[in-house]
Amino acid sequence: MGNAVPLAESGAAKAHRTVSRITTILELAASRRSGVRLSELATELDAPRSSLHGLVKGLVADGYLREQGGAYTIGPAISALLAAAPPTVAEAARAAMEELHRQFNETVMLASPVGSSLVYTDAIESTQPIRYSAPLRVRRPLHPTSSGKCLLAFATERFRENYLTGHLADAPRDDTIRHELDEVAQAGVAVNRGETLPDITGVGAPIFDKGRVVAAIALAGPTSRLGDVVTDIAEATKAAAHEVSERLAGR
């Protein structure tokens, strides 16, 4: 599985403004329990309310949004789409995540690629008073998160280069990141030592389905607790991701 190549055509894809606006509207509606208002959408998208009004009303008409009191939440059409889908990666990963959590009692996350970002779609938080709290359903950069390093490590060279040169200012002149990603591809596991948040260490491993990386399992917590056991955590996280990949292969 270590030589699998994901996101084969992602580097060639180009953003479309209308599509991007619609997907952002849906993501914002999904991320806020009380819903999102048109004025908030206009601020988030930096777009006139008049330009968004028709999109929002169209999504309501087709059942992808529900309007109540001027706020928009996810509509029933989304649930209908999900109900028709095959078993998800999250369903396949849950047992492995629970076991990883039981072993170390640190926060365990499932990360999925979303364009040139990642989103944590599931998490089991540590029960310890001081812990890492994972933001769910929010786009995060691929680098330097441990999950994102896994996704980049197994991406096509074109996708990786487009991401590095487009998102990291020093990437065109510095091969350090490229060498690290090559090492992640060889080891099948990535570590983030305080690169995203000071004093937080994260460990991630890729999940494969049909030869393509589709997600990553990550564990994160205070460096003061993870520092001495990071090797054990890396092996356990890699084993958990492999277990999920095997479950997906047997679907």
Automatic annotation (TrEMBL):
Biological process terms in GO annotation: negative regulation of DNA-templated transcription
PROSITE patterns in alphabetical order: HTH_ICLR (PS51077), ICLR_ED (PS51078)
Pfam families associated with the record: HTH_IclR (PF09339), IclR_C (PF01614)
Domain IclR-ED: 70-250
Keyword Membrane found: no
Entry GO MF terms: DNA binding; DNA-binding transcription factor activity
Domain annotation HTH iclR-type: ranges: 16-76
InterPro entries: GAF-like_dom_sf, HTH_MetabolicPath_Reg, Tscrpt_reg_IclR_C, Tscrpt_reg_IclR_N, WH-like_DNA-bd_sf, WH_DNA-bd_sf
Keywords, alphabetical: DNA-binding, Transcription, Transcription regulation
Protein name from the UniProt record: IclR family transcriptional regulator
Origin superkingdom: Bacteria
Species per Swiss-Prot/TrEMBL record: Saccharopolyspora karakumensis
